[in-house]
Amino acid sequence: MKIKTVATWDDDLWQDVYSLYSEAFGDKGAKPVRIIKNMFAKGNAELHVGYRESEAVVMAITGKLATDRIMIIDYLAVTEKERGSGLGKQLVDYLRRKAVAEGYQKIIIEAESEETPDNRRRIRFWQSCGFLLTEYVHHYIWVPEPYRAMYLPLVSDTRKVTGEELFVSINTFHRVSFRGGGKE
Length: 184
Prior knowledge:
184 residues, 7 strands, globular
C-alpha cells in the first residue's frame, strides 16, 4: 500500500477519498467539508490516503496539538470491501511512526461508547493497535452518542492518563477546528 500525506488542502486528493469518508461517516459524525478545510487553513490537520493501485482504500484525518505534543486521529476509514484486511492497522502503524518522528508523546482518539456490536468491534480494533481505553464517558451537548477516549502512549510514562484529561485535549482540538469555519 502506498500512503500519501498532505498538510494543505488538496481538492483532487479529497475527491479520491470523499466517497470513502461519506460511506464511513456521512450519516454519523462527519464534519462539514468547510470545517475540514478550515482545519487545514489553520495548519491543524493532515490527510493521509492509502492506495492499492490507483484506488484510495483507507484514509485518515489527523489533527495536532503541537504544544501538548499530541496527535489526534479525528477520522479513520477503510473502504467496506477491504475491511478486515489489515489496511487500517497499517495506516495506524504509519501514523504512529510519523508521530514518533515528529516528537509527539501520544496519539488519542474518541470512540463511541454505547454498547453496540459495531462500537465494541471498533474499540477492539483500536486496542489491537495498542490503544488503551479510559473509563470516563463524555457526553457532548451537540451529538447524542457518548464517547470514551483512547490513547496510544509513544513515550515511556508510568502515570496513568485519565479520560477527563484526554477530553480536555480533544475539546481544545474541536474548538480550534470549528473556530472561524465560515460558510461553504
